[in-house]
Amino acid sequence: MITLVFNREEYEYDCYALVTSFYPGEETKQLIGEASDGEDAPLPDRVRITALPEERRAEVFFSAGEVLPADRRYTMEKAGDFKKAFKQFFYETLTDYTGRRLPWGSLTGVRPTKLILSVAAEEAEKLAFSAAKTDDVMQNGGQEKRLKDAVVSRMQREYRVSEEKAALGLKIALLEDRILQKYRGGGYSLYIGIPFCPSRCLYCSFLSYTIESQKKKIADYLECLKKEMTATMEIMNGQRPDTVYIGGGTPTALDADGLHRLLSDVDAVFFGGGMPDEYTVEAGRPDSITKEKLEVMKEFGVSRISVNPQTFHQETLDLIGRRHTVKETIEAYELARSMGFDNINMDLILGLPGEGPDEVRATLDRVRELSPDSLTVHSLALKRASKMRDWVREHGALLGIDYDAVMRYAQETANLLGMDPYYLYRQKNIAGSLENTGFAKEGKYGLYNIIIMEEVQSIYAIGAGTVSKKVYTDGSGRIERCDTHKDLSLYLSDIQAMIERKRKLFGEDK
Q: Which of 29, 37, 334, 411 is a good FRET partner for 481, with 20 to 30 A between their CA atoms?
């Protein structure tokens, strides 16, 4: 148990995120307002950390009142800069105490590329580039090197990010910015949530019901989705979405008739005036993919699908509850290829139970043989809502692997397949304090993935457990959200209220 004590609530999120990065997989308890007795409190199993940020001064205590040396206490001259400075100070104290450094330094946010792009824009202005647009910078090798050196140096200095991760983040940020020029300043993307799966995976924290347990509600659910679709076009004044992403859950957990009904409704409501720039169905589970369902997706113009193995080791698949075989993964992928799908993504998770470096490399070698069009590599995150945390409590810690090394091997594999990294995000409790990275061949970038991560465009989300996001384009950086019920029965019975929530969010200012 790690006990983290604060005296001020506004520092809670960043401190907690850093502590869980330094102590992955361990239970962390947070206390507010008990800092005064931090030195005398009973020592927990591992360590007690007491953080005392004041107006211009901060102290951090470890364990039974051990105070860091006086030269490691931090005093700010300007209170306005204090919060950022305290976060850096807290990171350094944890580094001193544990002897570890994190690849992303003191950064705790989900979207490091968003920060890196803003730093790049500031540094480009300082360097007086002839063009401020980052795509122009990319096309000029000399400018790009000067910008890279300036950004990497600043990310190391201000946020303690490693040179490797700062360079990776900048490369992705510049590519994203070039791709997203079309989508800045207006439009929206549509997300449709299908909260059903063949079975629930051990690591999953998303809203997901087993399809067998909800068969009687599927027709009603599809009807509610249709109502939401119709309302979407009304609320958005007939404007079609730029991209459409059907996720879950597993959309292909629906049978062929159910999938046909869903895609037919999407086509009738949204695509009368032409197809979107990208139309994704996250097929995901190989055991849910059939020829009939692929034919349905072809019929309605789906341009991008996922066939997600997560791993190519059968013992691991059995353990994590995937309920499909390695052979089924390969067969589903090859079937999709034979039917003309030319934009297929695969998802992998590094660090699954029982898997070490050899197993991860073997999985990546199999991916290389199959040669998908894009690859999303996840570092395992122990999420509170997943069964994985319970598994770890019962069976002990996962195998210790060098996550930096296996992530580099994943990057090498992607490079050999002709892929570039194109989007990146981080999660709480992520293994190795690393990142999730999407790689893709030229022209096969997942547009929706970039749009939702970089928050340049509104996301209109329909279905149970989804969250819509309105991104204001007035330069304020303002973003507002609304959600829908996670409980399936409540969503079905309260569908009109769910529609009205989005009418209020997207209908204002019209």
A: 29
Q: Where are the alpha helices (DSSP H) in 371-487?
A: 388-395, 403-416, 447-454
Domains and CATH numbers, the chain: 2-98 (3.40.50), 112-181 (no CATH), 184-496 (3.80.30.20)
* Predicted pLDDT of residue 43: 46
Long-range contacts at 71-80 (CB < 8 A, ≥ 24 apart): 72/96, 79/55
Residues forming a β-bridge with 420: 440
Tens-place pLDDT, residues 101-142: 999 999 988 899 999 999 998 998 888 764 445 555 454 556
Q: CA-to-CA distance for 318 and 4, rounded, in angstroms?
A: 37
C-alpha angle 23-24-27 in degrees, rounded to nearest 5:
80
* Geometric angle at alpha carbon 437, from 175 and 471, rounded to 5°: 60
The side-by-side arrangement of strands in the sheet containing 188-194 is 419-425, 436-441, 374-379, 344-350, 304-307, 278-284, 243-248, 188-194, 458-462, 467-471, 479-483
Give which of 283, 276, 275, 267 is closest to 243, Cα–Cα. Answer: 276
Biggest alpha carbon–alpha carbon distance for the chain: 70
Q: Phi, psi at residue 469, to the nearest 5°?
A: -140, 120
Burial zone of 26 (CB within 10 Å; 0-12 exposed, 13-18 middle, 19+ buried)? middle
Q: What is the mean pLDDT of the chain?
A: 85
CB within 8 A of 3, min separation 6: which ones? Answer: 28, 29, 31, 41, 44, 47, 48, 49
Q: How far is it, in rounded angstroms, from Cα 21 to Cα 100?
A: 10
Q: Which tens digits make up the pLDDT trace of 52-89?
A: 888 778 888 886 555 666 666 667 666 667 888 888 98
Q: What is the pLDDT of residues 317-345, one digit of tens each?
A: 888 777 889 999 999 999 999 999 999 99
What pLDDT does residue 394 have? 53
pTM: 0.87
Rounded to whole angstroms, the Cα distance separating 415 from 410 reads 9
Q: Running DSSP on this structure, what letter comes out for residue 213?
A: G
β-strand pairing of 2-6 with 66-67: unpaired
CA atoms within 13 A on the CB side of 189: 30
Summarised one tens digit per residue, pLDDT across range 116-127 is 999 998 998 888
